[in-house]
Amino acid sequence: MIQHGVPIEELTPISISLLKVGQSLPYDLYNARGKFISAKDYIFKNEMEISMMSQSKPMRLKTDEDFKTQLRNDTELKEVNKATGSIEQTDTSLEYGGGELLTVAAREHDFSDYKANRDNAVRNGTKVSVVALINQLIATFPKLHKAFYDDSSTVLGILKTMETKLFRIIEQDKDAAIGLIHISEIKSQAEHCVFSAILAGTYSKTIGYPDRFVRLVVTSAFCMNLGAIELHEELNSKDTKLCDDLISKIRKHSEESVALTATAGIKHPTIINAILHHHERPDGEGYPAGLRSEEIPDEALIIGIVDTYLAMIGPRAYRNKVEPKEALKRVLFEGHKYDNDFYTTFIKAIGVYPAGTFHELNSGEIVVVIRRDPKHATKPEICTLINAAGEQVSELETILLSSSNQTIKKPHPGGRGLHIPPEVLWD
Fold this sequence. Notes:
Elements: E1 11-13, E2 29-30, E3 36-38, H1 47-55, E4 59-61, H2 62-68, H3 74-84, H4 87-90, H5 101-105, H6 111-124, H7 130-150, H8 155-183, H9 189-207, H10 211-223, H11 229-237, H12 244-250, H13 253-262, H14 269-277, H15 298-313, H16 324-338, H17 341-350, E5 358-361, E6 366-373, E7 376-386, E8 398-400, E9 408-411, H18 422-425
Antiparallel strand pairs: 1-4, 2-3, 5-6, 5-9, 6-7, 7-8
């Protein structure tokens, strides 16, 4: 039977005495059903948090204790660092079991690193645009896919590089990243998976998950369809109703992706759960296990929501694409239907009027959203493309909608057809 969490036999209860205000967790925690509930290094802020965590009967992976007892003092830790060399070359934190040893030697991923890198780059004149970084990720994706089949020993290194670049993108300008996603046609699996990773990372951070968990979700998004790339490309070009045989293949692709990632030693339960169950739905109509509501791991819900959203707004030969506003309405409906905050938080993550979406103002002007205004959820920063007379503007200028007397009237469905280069809108 397919497990929807970490198998219980691989977990063991923890001592509640380990949970202390101001101290970090020594390992990831799971509840009595094997569902991820808190990440390693999380620091409890008050006794209420500890009380709530205690009620969930927290457990840890048995293998965590195995590797903890191997590092008894700083001398041994230094020996591990010396023996393993650069983390860029040897990081195996996507594995679980012995591989977790190296995560002790490596400092946890932190978004603040990229803020410092960004500030230094600006000062030195070496800042790379978000658009360029995303294009680099898209170009790297086929290499990742090929590595799984040709040389799986290089997979973790490629994923580490992609993850680092993605975190840099989100820190540098997440609205620019969201904007590029919305003005793109999303025709390839490389685009779909990279865009899914960007949205999943932004979404997880908005929910409030620690960076360690965000990292695992991002990796899951990169890998979620790797076992069936050719199948997905076929789907994108198919202009007739899907036959039963093709539907059957679709329902197996998440299991095939899990099997493929395992060949590279990726066994972390959060990644496995996210990939395996990202097509599960709260009503039990999803696949492969037909899980319902609380049975679905959080990481799978996150990946599932961004995957579904991108599938709706991207063109498919067998159906029309959905405008982002309508797609967000459907996401919101799902949230109300199942009383699930995960769905409504997605809208908070990308904005009521996401960057890169096109709209008509009450004046008749056609504009594109550049980024959100943190003070006004429904009045973003915009750039006019077509003036009230129906003429293309000679010079692009951005304004805050809140500083004008204009309001957004309705979505403009032909915005992508204007073929505005993203580099013009976001540096």
